[in-house]
Amino acid sequence: MRDRGPSGADEVFMNAALDEAWDALRRGDVPVGAVVVRGGDVLGRGSNRKSCDPTAHAEVLAIRSAAERLGHWNLRDCDLYVTLEPCPMCAGACVNARIGALVFGARDPRAGAAGSLFDIPRDTRLNHRCRVRQGVLAEACLSLLREYFVERRHRRAQAGM
Questions:
Q1: Is pLDDT at 15 greater than 70 in this prediction?
Q2: Is 37 in contact with 13 (CB distance < 8 Å)?
Q3: Of 22, 52, 121, 126, which has the fewest CB atoms closer than 10 Å, so is most exposed?
Q4: 54, 47, 98: which is closest to 72 by C-alpha?
């Protein structure tokens, strides 16, 4: 299921996801941010977090936050905006939460599961499919990730790793 191209609202909400990614960058985490939106309102926010929780990805945290706010898990009338193409775990969370549309900025050729390596949100074998839009503010999303990984490599080189 493909949706129409990016709209002005897509850019507004992707900028909100980018704000979350900037928060992650300031904490020293991989700068990925996500927001869950319904009817123009942001219901949940998340950004990647270094923790002992391997599920602490931006998408999962935003979905949890929105579900808690709504008081139920079914987010069929919600859209998820995320700065980086979701991994298999997060793409599966979109399906399980019944996200209506998944909108992402940058593709992830190494781990992306919304069209790059896999296409979990649109897999017809699953019990729900999400509309997918990609490339919204892709360059801004990519530049933030590049900045993080350049700095990380620089720190490792200085440490002799």
A1: yes
A2: yes
A3: 52
A4: 98
Number of alpha carbons in the 13 Å side-chain half-sphere of residue 89: 9
Q: Which of the residues are catalytic?
A: 59
Q: What is the mean pLDDT of residues 137-159?
A: 89
Contact indicator for 87, 111 with CB cutoff of 8 Å? yes
Q: Which residue has the tokens 């200085």?
A: 158
At 23, the amino acid letter reads D
pLDDT for 41-51, tens place per residue?
999 999 999 98
d(CA 140, CA 137): 6
Name which of 136, 96, 113, 118 is nearest 9 in CA terms. 136
Q: Contact 89/111 with Cβ under 8 angstroms?
A: no
Residue with tokens 């898990």, as numbered in its chain? 73
Tell me the pLDDT tens digit for each residue of 66-95. 999 999 999 999 999 999 999 999 999 999
């350049």: which residue's tokens? Answer: 150
Residue 56 CA to residue 30 CA, distance in Å, equals: 11
Closest to 12 (Cα-Cα) out of 41, 46, 47: 41
Q: Which pLDDT does position 154 carry in this prediction?
A: 76
